[in-house]
Design brief:
With about 220 residues, this protein is an all-alpha fold. It is built from eleven helices and no strands.
């Protein structure tokens, strides 16, 4: 089996790590709000967050391309601010990946926060803990299984992205050529050995990640 160029793999891991880190920071307050709010717009917010799960990647990638382009609402603002476009560069891939993988992080965290319950939080309040202190000392530790699931799902989902990243980033070696795009290129060029090697790497990583997640969750239940 021929050894493939590992550049796309390393770039994909870098993208997945950065995107997952950003998603944990952004997803935590969003998930907490969804888990605790009684606002009437909650179903609409949940639907918006979950939209990438059911929306075809090419459709989302197309609208993000319009939004991120220098003529788009977000793209024009960013271009005036930084002098760079959001399309066809690594930073644009990070933004697109965060949006596309958002439900895979928010939903596990929301479920974990909902399982904490109000009684423990109210008990912390009665002991003098401020809301932020109670959140980090009570809710976050009790939601650790949710964080593990969110990290694994967010990271793994970013690794396998194709339609969205192709629309936003294109296929620029060393900049936006991710492993999923490299696999597609190898198949198009009838280079099945290289495509097979890269696909096996993704398959093995996905299986090991999911296996470890289920084993850790099962052990924490015991």
């Amino acid at each position: 089996m021929l050894l493939p160029d590992l550049g796309p793999l390393l770039l994909t891991v870098k993208l997945a790590f950065i995107s997952t880190s950003v998603l944990i920071v952004i997803g935590t307050p969003v998930a907490w709000w969804l888990a605790t709010t009684r606002c009437r717009i909650k179903p609409f917010a949940e639907a918006i967050v979950a939209l990438p799960i059911v929306l075809p990647p090419t459709v989302m990638g197309f609208y993000l391309l319009i939004l991120f382009s220098p003529q788009g609402a977000l793209g024009s603002f960013w271009y005036e601010l930084s002098g760079q476009a959001l399309t066809f560069n690594f930073f644009g891939l990070v933004v697109a990946s965060v949006l596309y993988s958002l439900p895979f992080v928010v939903q596990p965290l929301q479920s974990a926060f909902e399982s904490v319950g109000k009684d423990l939080m109210e008990a912390a309040y009665t002991l003098g803990a401020k809301p932020l202190d109670a959140f980090f000392s009570v809710a976050v530790p009790l939601a650790k299984r949710g964080y593990l699931t969110a990290i694994v799902l967010g990271f793994s989902h970013t690794l396998g992205e194709f339609g969205v990243v192709l629309m936003i980033g294109g296929n620029i070696p060393g900049e936006t050529r991710l492993i999923s795009i490299a696999i597609y290129d190898h198949v198009e060029s009838l280079e099945y050995a290289q495509a097979h090697t890269l696909s096996l790497i993704l398959l093995a990583f996905a299986f090991v990640s999911m296996l470890l997640m289920y084993l850790i969750n099962q052990r924490s239940k015991a």
